[in-house]
């Protein structure tokens, strides 16, 4: 009789666990954006928010926790219970922090649910620059000229990408960090630097106006948003990097949580309702999930660590 009671109790426990899993989500879900409102990661999450709320049948609460280049918000996210109710807007900023040694966590402390958007790093120069190709810019540096390249922020992902390109080209650029993207762009347009390395979306307006011209970009293949810009690899430089945005949570997320989110995002992407938003932001929809996403995260984190080199603490 005692054995039967234990068996019944065990059965109820299993059924209760299965029921709890099946009912996710049962309450509001908080998504931490580790930057101030209005930035790229914030815009990405808030554009997805109403579409996700419809698919998940719950409210998505977006919480901006800025500081430390994303470190404060991501630290809060990774320390949360892995129950699917506290997630984060993830991006290559996470890998930048890891590569620079600025945080206690690594990519392996997160479960990555989806990569949704990406954009390339772009090498651009002023519209009237003497450089009309990456080769011309690299040759000038090889000949001993101090080629000044502006980036946004010391130790930022753009800074590391600029170092990675100089390594791939086997030259040394004089890399000059500015407080942000707008200041970097202004420096290039004003002739204070020879070129810049920034995300493609950030450069979209000055490129369209002709105030800047793009010489190359970091995708594996050409971008639909920049179809006339050659890749680094096309130009003979073995480097492929992306600025990406997605969703992640602390390590240990239940499978049903990941499956629920992936299903919702897949449906949104298939319906095409997010395409116009991506186009307006100058970003490319490039979803990845599961093993492919894990491989992407591992590879890009390794590239960032290698490129950070002496920049890291």
UniProtKB/TrEMBL annotation:
Q: Does the keyword Signal apply?
A: yes
Task: Report if keyword Signal is assigned.
Answer: yes
What Pfam families does the record point to? TctC
- InterPro entries from the xrefs? BUG, Bug_dom1
Could you list this entry's UniProt keywords, alphabetically sorted: Signal
CDD domains assigned to the protein according to its UniProt record, in alphabetical order:
PBP2_Bug_TTT (cd07012)
> What start and end residues bound the annotated signal peptide?
1-22
**What is the name of the protein in this document?**
Tripartite tricarboxylate transporter substrate binding protein
Identify the species of origin: Halomonas salipaludis
């Amino acid at each position: 009789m005692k054995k039967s009671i234990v068996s019944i109790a065990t059965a109820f426990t299993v059924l209760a666990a299965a029921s709890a899993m099946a009912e996710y989500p049962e309450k509001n879900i908080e998504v931490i954006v580790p930057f101030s409102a209005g930035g790229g990661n914030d815009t990405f999450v808030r554009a997805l928010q109403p579409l996700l709320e419809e698919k998940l049948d719950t409210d998505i609460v977006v919480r901006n926790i800025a500081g430390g280049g994303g470190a404060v918000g991501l630290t809060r996210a990774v320390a949360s219970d892995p129950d699917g109710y506290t997630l984060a807007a993830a991006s290559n900023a996470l890998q930048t922090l890891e590569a620079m040694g600025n945080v206690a966590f690594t990519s392996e402390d997160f479960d990555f649910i989806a990569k949704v958007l990406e954009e390339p790093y772009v090498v651009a120069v002023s519209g009237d620059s003497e450089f009309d190709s990456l080769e011309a810019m690299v040759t000038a540096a090889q000949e001993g000229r101090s080629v000044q390249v502006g980036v946004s922020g010391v130790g930022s992902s753009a800074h590391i990408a600029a170092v990675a390109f100089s390594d791939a080209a086997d030259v040394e650029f004089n890399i000059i960090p500015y407080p942000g993207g707008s200041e970097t762009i202004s420096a290039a347009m004003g002739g204070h630097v020879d070129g810049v390395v920034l995300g493609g979306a950030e450069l979209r307006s000055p490129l369209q106006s002709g105030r800047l011209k793009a010489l190359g970009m970091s995708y594996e293949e050409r971008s639909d948003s920049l179809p006339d810009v050659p890749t680094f690899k096309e130009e003979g430089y073995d480097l492929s990097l992306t600025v990406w945005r997605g969703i992640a949570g602390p390590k240990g997320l239940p499978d049903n949580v990941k499956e629920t989110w992936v299903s919702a995002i897949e449906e949104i992407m298939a319906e095409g309702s997010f395409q116009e938003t991506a186009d307006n932001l100058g970003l490319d929809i490039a979803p990845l999930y599961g093993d492919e996403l894990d491989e992407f995260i591992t590879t890009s984190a390794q590239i960032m660590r290698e490129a950070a080199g002496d920049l890291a603490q």
